[in-house]
Amino acid sequence: MPHVMDEAGRKVWYDVLGEGDPLALIGGSSLVHRQWDFMVPILRDHFKVILFDQQGARLSDRTPSGISLDRWVDDLKLILDALGVEQTDILSTSNGSLIAISFAARYPGRVKALVHYGIYRMTDQYRKISRIGETIINEFGVGNRSMGAYYLARMFGTPDTCEQWVTNRFEENLTPDAWKSMHVAIDVDLTEDLTKIKAPQLIMVGEVGPLGKDSDYASGSREMGRFGPLAEKVIIPDTNGTFHVLTRPFECSQKVLAFLKRKRRQ
176-192, pLDDT tens digit by residue? Predict the structure, then answer.
């Protein structure tokens, strides 16, 4: 399996599927590349899909020390450099959108277009969810075949149709100390970064649930003015929070394809 190595010698896993223009996919810090399992079979027919796992989860180094948003942004750059990709579109969701926003702000010339969930800062609800998650992990653990992964999935409002699947992915992807470090890493406010993004943006978010469009967690979807006058938004109806990419992969893929195709023509 391909890896890049950061300056501290930690491994970062990535993979490339399909051919065409590059499209980097960034999942949340608990599902990482598995967040795209149901969209990749569609997207790989149109793009060179680039997947990676943030340090702290799944197939990348899970050492808790050194995990930070800046580190994740640097890791994405390392992967793109290793692949010889000068410019890419980016599709992200959940708190993976923080990486996408920060990368697009730091390297505006390397991002053609950006689709993300709209989260750009740690809100009070976000911190509350993190505290509850840490309590669950302290009590039950995760990655040890306990009930911890199940309770984390329930905490995020995972839809019934994919609750067991998400629970299994959390169990595979996470360790207690790394999960805690990852949630410290996402306690950021990227308001200033938003003004540095030059690429066109599409905010794509689910309609309902504790992570849905009207929640404090997804407050970016209600604050479109912060993303600039050219930013657009699409709500995937009757879907729960960030889980729209799991429960409605075809519809989400079509929205992404239409947006990127239209921006190519402009």
Answer: 999 999 999 999 999 99
